[in-house]
Specification:
The complex is a heterodimer. In chain A, the strands form three sheets. Chain A has a seven-stranded mixed beta sheet with strand order 10-9-8-7-11-12-15, covered by helices on one side. In chain A, strands 1-2-5-4-3-6 form a six-stranded antiparallel beta barrel. In chain A, about 15% of the residues lie in helices and about 30% in strands. Chain A is built from six helices and 15 strands. The N and C termini of chain A lie far apart (about 50 Å). In chain B, strand 9, helix 4 and strand 10 form a beta-alpha-beta unit. The two termini of chain B are about 20 Å apart. Chain B is of the alpha/beta class. In chain B, helix 2 packs parallel to helix 3, helix 3 packs parallel to helix 4 and helix 4 packs across helix 5. Classes of the chains: A alpha/beta, B alpha/beta. Chains A and B meet through strand 13 of A and strand 5, strand 6 and helix 7 of B.
Amino acid sequence: MDGELLAAREYLPGHWLQTWRVPSLASRAQPGQYAYVATPPGWSVPLLRPVTLHGFDRVPGEVVVQLAPDAPAQGWLAPLPPGGRATFAGPFGRPLRIDPSAHHLLLIAEGSSIGRLRSLVDRALGAGRQVAVLLGAISASEVYPSSLLPDEVEYAVATADGSLGHHGAVLDMVPSYEAWADQAFAAGSPDMLQDLVTLLRGRDARLGVARLARRPGRRSARGAAAAPRDWLQVVLEQRVGCVLGVCLGCSVEGATGPVRVCREGPAFASQELAWSDPA
Amino acid sequence: MTGDDPGDHPGDPGVDLAPERPGALVLRTPILAAAGCLGYGVEAVGQVDLSALGAVVTRGTTLHARAGGPAPRMTDAPGGLLHALGHQNPGITTVLERHAPRWVTWEVPVILSLVATSAEEFAALAERTDGIPGISGLELDLGSVESGRKGRPISYDALSVGHIVAAVRAATDLPVLVKLSITSPDLRGVGRAAAEAGADALDCGSGPPALLQGRRAMLSGPAVGPLALRAVSELARRSRLPIVGCGGVTTLHDATAMLEAGAVAVAVGTAMLADPSLPIRLAAELADQRPS
């Protein structure tokens, strides 16, 4: 599907938000999903590059694509002027789902990976929910600007060097919000997600929640969406791959065997993935 | 597929990848889908017109299920793609149960790619496939390191290649394609060993070994095109077996160059990941280019 670049802004050095008119993509995109963009003729390797759908607006048929400095499509998309064109495919993957009974949503992100969760903010606020965003970054110069979030969002920042917000890791802030949150969504490095899952293993005990026995049985990893009642859903990064879901280049270890980030993901309920046990 | 005129035009004999086994593996068009780029083919039904392909080479299949390697498994490299998939597959038993009943209904030949680390393992895999309807041939992926040895892939060693091909030959009557490495230091030697041991065709071949975050990987894509072309040319001058050229093919020009270098057929790999219909387009363009 052909797209036309309408506007672009560099919101941090090397970090871009581009607004594209791609009606058929905008009309079907869901929070957590991604799209592919085709390389132009003559460009290096003819592979499709995944791009993060930072936002979408169905009425004008527009999507906002986020390009981080290390984004595979950065090299040729970022310099494009308004009016530039590109070929998109998508949306792909399983979206994030909000539990209908959840009113307080906690979003936890690291660096530019907040882009993978950003459209969920609009979806949640539009449905009358409350949203808190916790973001971790190396320093203040790499923090996602608060101006890009709606005023209704509670936004807390942690920086590794202490230059803005909490001095430390984003996960340090999670315990303060876990009692408030009905549901949590996270995006970040594999190490950060692993640490988050490890941290949340103690959540029930910290909150004094009784563990109710569940009926035995295996939940399929191939459902239409990440199971909505899972407290934590994560969005994994989609990398270069194929459009058919056959190359297995993005497979990761799931709880019941390998799962493809491109199809079974990129949004997963945390218990659908295999995590390391704490040492 | 055993029709009298398997090519695209009446009287066109098609491309015979096993001349010693008349009619066993004749392709309608010289353009194939390289190993794994369409999975087991069934994943692509409805998205790719498989009948327009010369053949579908499946994902590499092992004796037992493999979960594959850790992430990241695939990443861009200048001019190419690095992949370290670790041969994720459900194992030969599941593959045959799940997919062979569908393959048998297809017009397009299915070549099952086999992955193992010893002659015994390859022979065991071949035995499992013999007599299974729907499989038109076997591709032996010799990119793994031989069991009990260290370092180089099997495809670098003529003795090992000969030993493995002979074991497979004894286990099956199916056409056998041997996938060699385009960077093998003794390409002629391993090609000769494969031929003497009973191979029907040579697939040339696997990309150069590489590293992906410290793990063994392979480079593919346009960057390896000239290497593959050289390897095909070198093999074609010395081997009597049909050769399938593979490596960096993205355009009609690339495919034509492979055929002119001596290949009888061309497998499209990495470029298919972005454009699954590419081999079909190349096949049509090639047919248009050839005199009717």
